[in-house]
Amino acid sequence: ADDGLVISEPGALSPTMAFDTTYEPEPRFPALGEAFGDPVAPAAFPAPVLRRWDERAAERIGLSGLSESEKARHFAAFEPLPDNLNPPLAMRYHGHQFRVYNPDIGDGRGFLFAQLRAADGRLLDIGTKGTGRTPWSRTGDGRMTLQGGVREVLIAAFLEAAGVPGCSILSLCETGEALERYDEPSPARGAVLSRVQHGYVRIGTFERHARENAPERITALVDYCAELYFPDLLELAGAERALGLLSHAIEANAKLVATWMAAGFVHGVMNSDNMTVTGESFDYGPSRFIPVFEPEYTAAYFDQGGIYAFARQAESALWNLHRLAECLSLVAPFEALTERLGGFEPSYHSALGEAFCLRFGVKPSGGSRDLELVRAAMSFARQSRVLFEDMFFDWFAGALARESALSGPRASYYSGDAFDAFHNSLGALEPYGEFAHRHAYFQREAPVRLTIDVMRAIWADIEEHDDWTSFNETLAAIDDMRDGFGLAPD
After folding, report:
1. Strand partners, 431
2. Predicted pLDDT of residue 13
3. Hey, which of 255, 290, 386, 409 has its CA 20 to 30 A from 310?
4. Dmax of the chain from CA atoms?
5. 393 C-beta neighbours (distance < 10 Å), count
6. For residue 52, what pLDDT is reported?
7. CB burial of residue 435 (10 Å; 0-12, 13-18, 19+)
8. Neighbour-count burial of 311, counting CB atoms closer than 10 A to its CB (0-12 exposed, 13-18 middle, 19+ buried)
């Protein structure tokens, strides 16, 4: 059944807007200057239908309670939000794509739509995908497919539930367009989405201005990031502030990749234009979740060399951070920047141990026992071929899960030397408590899984029958997952 909401034509909407009292616009990016973005006009869509609205994300930025006509005005027609960016800006950047430099890219099918203060005081950005052509579209049409939008909504929700820092998909609209695509059956249904995250300053943003030999723009970017993302850097100046920015980017991206690994997530296209200095996960393209533990698993069919394979994601993040250091060398000593890069490995290992502990519902020790758990879990998962997500589900709360795991539907996996090593490592860490293991989510027979076969089945229901039941039920289950795993505090 089609349970989408048909959106009226923009011209028929009331001009009266009823924004939440917590709506706090603060458009800061335009002040960087015209070298950083290009004003663009959003595409006009023939018959938009709202397929997804995330009220939790809306509440964070003062957009809770918008009427359906207001949602249409701002997130299908993309009329600027009050006192915000007008017009929106296609952000300029370059990037290394599969480690080959590309100076001909930027926001090619999206733009920075708005910036707002969140309830926690952070400035959050709303960016779009599928909003039409920009100066950086090259030969593309600036659109996205509905299948791609459905994938992004599901992946973003799952990653948030698994503790990965990243974007929230605020809205997904089907546009009523039929798109021609070479990599999926055409005509394909069109869509447009809006996503919220802390910032869209990419490593590739720095690369563009470094390539154009503009140290004053690099300094402006460093200052922008200090003010909006890392306020502790405001106590520093000049080269020290740039060095501090690199340190923050190292720590943030080390945590990002560590949480990807604990979620079994393969981004697929870790180009430098897809990696932010704030270490946030976004733009999911060909990404996938590993069914079972396979270090060499790749998400993109065109990644023939496995550059962005599951087990090489930390290596790729560090490679990109080296590119950021090269850019910052226009305003800071290269030797000092290189020294800071040495902090990635210990930051990553620490974050990896913590991420696995939190997914297993045990308290990180802050020491070697955390990494022992990681090694033991990976070795057991590889030898047993247990579904990766099932391992965390069955053993959440560590030793407290023993009885249910060993009597559950996957008990046959839990024996042998590799399992014993894993079980002992898990038992050496303190569970968060009985209350966590008893959460309703862990009483299910199986966890939420977003492996490729599950994603294809959800899309098949939509494509063949316009049936959104599986999509909505999966999102509801992911909400339960977030609440269950969320009992292990940050």
Report:
1. 362
2. 35
3. 409
4. 68
5. 25
6. 98
7. exposed
8. middle
Note the helical H segments in 308-360. 313-328, 334-341, 344-359
Q: Between 436 and 407, whose confidence is greater?
A: 407
Q: Which residue has the tokens 């926690």?
A: 120
Taken in order 63, 64, 67, 72, is the CA torsion positive or negative?
positive
Residue 339 has pLDDT above 90, yes or no: yes
In the three-class reduction of DSSP (H, G, I as helix; E, B as strand; rest coil), residue 305 is classed as coil
**Confidence bin at 10 (pLDDT 50/70/90):** very low
The question of whether 83 is a catalytic residue gets the answer: no
Whether the per-residue pLDDT at 371 is higher than 90: the answer is: yes
Separation of alpha carbons 45 and 171, rounded Å: 15
Three-state secondary-structure class, residue 169: strand
DSSP classification of residue 139: T
Active-site residue identified among 54, 273, 370, 394: 273
Ranking 14-28, 180-194, 270-284 by mean pLDDT, the lowest is 14-28
Residues 6+ positions from 16 with CB-CB distance below 8 Å: none
Q: Residues 148-190: pLDDT tens digits?
A: 999 999 999 999 999 999 999 999 999 999 998 877 788 999 9
Cα angle 317-321-235, degrees, rounded to a multiple of 5: 125
Give the chain's length.
Answer: 490
The CA distance from 388 to 133, in Å, is 39
Give yes or no for a cis peptide into 87 (omega within 30° of 0).
yes
Check residue 60 and give left, alpha or beta (phi > 0: left; psi -120 to 50: alpha).
alpha
Q: Percentage of residues in the chain with pLDDT exceeding 70?
A: 95
Q: Which of 5, 317, 283 is nearest to 127 (CA)?
A: 283
